[in-house]
Amino acid sequence: MIDIKMLRKDFASCKEAIARKKFDCDLDAVMKLDENRRVAIALAEKTRASQKAVNSEIAQMSKGTPEFFDKVSEMKEIANKVKELESTAKKIDEDFLDAFMTIPNLPDSTVPNGKGEQDNQAISTWGNVKGDFPNAVPHYDIPWFDQMIDFPRGVKVTGGGFPFYLGDMSRLVRALINYFLDEAGKNGYEEVHSPIVVNAASATATGQLPDKEGQMYLDQNEEVYLIPTAEVPVTNFFRDEILSAGQLPVKRCAYTPCFRREAGSWGKDVRGLNRLHQFDKVELVKWTHPDESFQELESLRNDAEKLLQNLGLPYRVLSICSGDIGFPHAKQYDLEVWAAGQKRWLEVSSCSNFTDFQARRANIRFRDQSGKPRPVHTLNGSALAIPRVLAALLENNLKPDGLVDIPVCLQTWFPQDRIGFHGSGIIK
């Protein structure tokens, strides 16, 4: 959540900043609720003080006198009034909090203006972008694709968007995960193995609720959600805790399966590996000092970019515009690889700075030099999501004989230089 003191102090600027984002939010109504709750709380506290004063008077009076009974009667009336006012204040406070939680994070001043994804700005490219890939075809049209990634049986077992990876393809997925985790470790991220279900408090803290409730799988019996990304459990690791300034930045990485309903997705954009309901991803998460978070964002983005460079995948970096940036985001970069067979860009990473938005919702703080607790800044980035990386590898590295070359950086975990079917067997 944003800082309520900032909203009270500079309402016009906050309203202008939030208007740049796509999320509906009635700030005027929120501020009216804030005013009402402050009045209600102040009145309840004032009446409670009167109750204490009357109690003190009663304690000094002689019991059994007419004055004593009058004062007891007065005390009971005030006590009933206190209960009534506290109940009213609690209801108004709850209404305020519900409305306050619908306010998105303020976009940073460096975020480009725009209404949607068409206004995102490409700020850099790397590699043979849209170059010569004479053998490329869409990965789902490679003749042996269905023999190594089985969608029909995934539909039979679960439903659409839950494929089986078979044999060498399964091992290649595992090689990508191991590579991403090992590189993250080299860059100072401590590996964690996290839960893949979270409660509503965790999803609310990171901003998935109330923004993305329709995209998450919910177990209504246990009231827990399958995670859309490791960002959610890992960020909540420090919920309701205070770190020391000397600990910052804290850097963690985690591999998890991720689950997204992707309601309404259809057409060519969801064919093959382009959009799945379950997929594997390695996530990078940082808790940083507020003065260093934007510098740490650039470092995080660089960590993700190096993976694509080592894989030899052409990519571009997009600065996400105000109309496309996420609900809790202050600044966001997307990394998109070029899939030569489909002749289109595929997003494989989103690197984001949430400033203190998630930290306020999760109550994650650090002690500054004066010893005063302050919210940390949180960041996260995909490094990387497996399916679209795999799609680009298959399409861009397809050779005339129908086999796919394996990048050298993966061969520590996948000890062969090609993958695919040739004739009746798998090529080793």
Topology:
Elements: H1 4-9, H2 11-18, H3 27-59, H4 66-100, E1 121-126, H5 145-148, E2 149-150, H6 151-157, E3 164-165, H7 167-186, E4 190-192, E5 197-199, H8 200-206, H9 208-211, E6 218-219, E7 224-226, H10 231-235, E8 242-244, E9 250-259, E10 278-288, H11 293-311, E11 315-319, E12 331-339, E13 344-353, H12 357-362, E14 365-367, E15 373-375, E16 377-385, H13 386-396, E17 404-405, E18 418-419, E19 421-422, E20 425-426
Parallel strand pairs: 4-9, 8-14
Antiparallel strand pairs: 1-11, 2-3, 5-7, 6-7, 9-10, 10-16, 11-12, 12-13, 13-16, 14-15, 17-18, 19-20
Helix pairs in contact: 3-4
Please give a structural write-up.
This protein is of the alpha+beta class and 428 residues long. The chain has 13 helices and 20 strands. The chain has helices at 4-9, 11-18, 27-59, 66-100, 145-148, 151-157, 167-186, 200-206, 208-211, 231-235, 293-311, 357-362, 386-396, and strands spanning 121-126, 149-150, 164-165, 190-192, 197-199, 218-219, 224-226, 242-244, 250-259, 278-288, 315-319, 331-339, 344-353, 365-367, 373-375, 377-385, 404-405, 418-419, 421-422, 425-426. The strands form six sheets. It has an eight-stranded mixed sheet. Helix 3 runs antiparallel to helix 4 (66-100). The two termini are 53 Å apart. 38% of the residues are buried. The model is unreliable at 424-428 (pLDDT under 50).
